[in-house]
Each structure stands twice: as structure tokens, then as C-alpha cells.
Design a protein that fits this description.
Elements lengths: L7 H21 L6 H14 L3 E5 L2 H11 L7 E5 L5 H8 L3 E5 L10 H13 L4 E7 L8 H10 L3 E5 L7 E2 L2 E2 L6 E5 L13 E5 L2 H11 L21 H10 L3 H19 L12 E2 L5 E4 L2 H13 L29 H9 E4 L7 H21 L1
Parallel strand pairs: 2-3, 2-4, 4-5, 5-8
Antiparallel strand pairs: 1-9, 6-7, 6-10, 8-9, 11-12
Helix pairs in contact: 1-8, 2-8, 3-4, 3-7, 9-12, 10-12
The structure holds pyridoxal-5'-phosphate (PLP).
The site of pyridoxal-5'-phosphate has 15 residues, from α3 and α4.
Length: 379
Amino acid sequence: MIPFIDLKAQQARIRPALDKRFSDILNHGAYIMGPEVSEIETILSDYCGSKHTLSCSNGTDALILALMVKGIQAGDVVIVPAYTFVATAEAVAVLGAIPFFVDVDPHTFNMCPQSLDEGIRAARAQNLPLRGIITVGLFGQTADMDPLTQIAHAHDLWVLDDAAQDFGATYKGRVAGNLGDISTTSFFPAKPMGCYGDGGAVFTNSDAEFEILKSMRVHGQGTDKYDNVRLGMTGRLDTLQAAVLLEKMPLFDEEIDMRQVVAARYTQGLEGLCETPFVLDECVSTWAQYTIKVAPTQRATIVSDLKEAGIPSMIYYAIPLHLQKAYCHYPRARESLATSEMLSQQCMSLPMHPYLEATQQDAIINEFSKIVEKSAKAA
Ligand SMILES: *Cc1c(COP(=O)(O)O)cnc(C)c1O
């Protein structure tokens, strides 16, 4: 079986350095907020160009912290795309606020500027207390930030950019992690920059927000954690996870380049067999996923035939958020978010990681081509 994501090849490169890092931590014993934590925060800030990085427990808590520092309260409304991982909307909902769903673009899979505009007008017409929007860089490509930010700012809304999947991607020369008024990422192991457990970060250019975020990360601490001046959480990144990131970050640019080679090979090999991914001009994707579109009637067969041939594939996301049981009662820009609904039927993702070998990839492409031709004949 070809792995969907292979973390072993990468680990072989950094294993001796990691062993040394872990051993150092076992010796110094600062498991919580050890020196590795501030070390990685500096490196992450330098990497994406954000003034401050607050490392934290995971990408969902990063979103919650970002919403809290923006002052989100129960009843407030935040616009989110309907086609994303659930955490984007969940972070809003767990604070008692209201996720308002808008549609995505059929090519980039990211928030559609027209649908955002329509959503804002619909929310305002209902007198809903709109506060901000959350953009997402789905599958590794940034959202089209310029028009989205322009629309949001014209309506006095802030932009929180959820860069869990596209941290390190570039948008017209700017690096994801520093594309929103505030941004977040996740270091879940399967993300392009992942640790070996849970982790995340909030990025801000505001000194004042950073001070509050540091307090919120430790129970809203004042002078110390037994002086509680606001609400917060247990939101720290483990020292051991910071160490993993410290060894992985130096490889990141090279790995993003390697992902371009893998993506280009797929795109060339799959041409004419399915709809291959589209990347905006002047943008570089981190290829968190290589996601293609196939005929909805053929998708299940393609997935199961690939599996039989030892090739894993994944469906992200089979149910758009506005149709999920826990979210279908929240408001949306219009009754049917047609593109999100269509993509949830068409999309599937193929094995993707920087160390995918050309021979393995060619085997995947050959198998895919056989299956698609067979199912086209059957249809
Ligand atoms: C993974 C992910 C998150 C949440 O990250 P966790 O670290 O798993 O909490 C949030 N948003 C998006 C778009 C994601 O893909």
C-alpha cells in the first residue's frame, strides 16, 4: 500500500537531530514553555513576516484565541466558507457566536468574493451583528486575499486567515501566516508543516493583541497564572513539539519545492482524465492536498478501485458545513451554496507528500487512468 502521506522519509533526515533535541529536553525538564518554544516562535515570525507568533495547543485553539482577542462574544456573527474543515466554523460556534456561511470559488475552492459580498448584504439586511470574516487557504492554496480583504474592510470587518493548510504558501509574494489582519495555523502531523502531536499558532502584527494572546494562552493571566484578569484557556504548545518544529522548519522551503515537482507530475499525467487543480497567478501552493474533480457518479468507484490496487485516496469534504447536522441551522448567504455542494460531490485527493517517488507516482497515474477509462466505457 502506498501511504497517503509519508512522514517517515522526512523523519529519517532529521532523526539524529531530533534524538538530540528530545534528549536535551529530558535533561532540562522544562516540558511546559521551555526555551524551544520561544525559539520556534521567532523562527515562525521570521518565516512568514508576521511581527508576532503565539504558538499554541492546536489549530482550532489558535482560531478560538484569535476570535477571542478580536473580542468575539455570544451572538456575534462571523462569515466563514461552507467548504472547509469543520474547525473553521466550530471555533466561532463554541464561543456562542454565529458562523454565517458563504460559498467558494469552483476553481480555487476558497471563499468566493461575490458570495462574500452577497453574504454581507444579506446579514446586514437582517441586522445581524457582523464582526469579521475567516478566509481559509484550502488544500494549500491561499484564498484570493486582495478582493476578499477589500470587501471585508469596506464593510468594517476584520479578516482572520485560517492558514492551517497553506502556511508557507505565497500570495503575490506575501507568505501565508501573514495574510490576514490576524492569522492562524495548525501543526497537526499531516499538515505541510506538522509536529508529532497537536500544535498551532496565532500570528499578529499588533503588539497589543500579542500581549492579550499571551495572557489568554494561560487562563487569562495577569502578573502570573494565579492572577486572572480575563478569560483564557490552557493553550500552550508542548516543548517537545516545539523541538520537532525546530528541526522541520529548515527543510520547509525545500519540501515546498519538492511538492511543486510532485504536483506538476500529477497534473501532466492526469491531463484529460479529470479536472486537475488550478493555482492563481503569482501564487505558490503548499499542496497540502492534491485535489482533483471527477464525475460525481464515478467517484465512489474510482476511490474503491484505487484502494483495491493499493492506492489510498481521500474525500475532502463529503459534506459541506452548511449541510452538517451540527451547523445546518446557522444562516447562509443563500439557501443553496451550489459550488460547495457540487465540490463535495466531485472532489477527491490523491497521495501527496514531498518524498513521493516518481515511480510510485507513475503507478498511481497509470492505475487512475485505467480505472477512469474503464468507468467511462461502463457509463
Ligand atoms: C486542520 C485544520 C484546522 C484545525 O487544526 P487542528 O490543529 O486539527 O485543531 C483548522 N482549519 C483548517 C482549514 C484545517 O485544515
